[in-house]
Amino acid sequence: MPDIWKRDVDDLLMSPLAVNTDDMIVVTMPPLEFRYFDALPKKIMVQNNGLTVTLNGLWADDRQPCIAGANLDDKYNFSHLHFHWTDVDGDNVINEHIVNGRG
Q1: What is the mean pLDDT of residues 41-62?
Q2: C-alpha angle with apex 78: 40 to 66, nearest 5 degrees?
Q3: What's the CA gap between 27 and 46, in Å, rounded?
């Protein structure tokens, strides 16, 4: 329900998410379209700050990876991808998002 989400949530507060599947509503909509995710970037930058690794890419203007469809008002361009580090045995896992009270 993107129309309600953007009305009720400030842009800076859209993450992390706490999802309770008992509260979910099934909605039928057109498929989400993934465009140009097979396009190789002209340049890629990788930054490791010890806690996360961030990948930023630079694509040709007409090949910028994006998503569209699924009742979205516009297309949304890929910005970056980041990974969080955790310890080897997984005891110190930090998640941004929670589903049914579990991260």
Answers
A1: 92
A2: 85
A3: 37
Residue 71's region, left for phi above 0, alpha for psi from -120 to 50, else beta, is left
Cβ-Cβ contacts under 8 Å for 25 (sequence gap 6 or more): 1
Model confidence, pTM:
0.65
Asked if 77 contacts 65 with a C-beta cutoff of 8 angstroms, the reply is yes
84 beta partners: 52
HEC string of 69-89?
ECCCCCCEECCCEEEECCCCC
Give the confidence band of 3 by pLDDT, cuts at 50, 70, 90. Answer: low
Banded pLDDT at 8 (limits 50, 70, 90): low
Q: In this structure, what is the dihedral angle of CA atoms 17, 75, 67, 48, given to the nearest 10 degrees?
A: -60
Residue with tokens 């080897």: 88
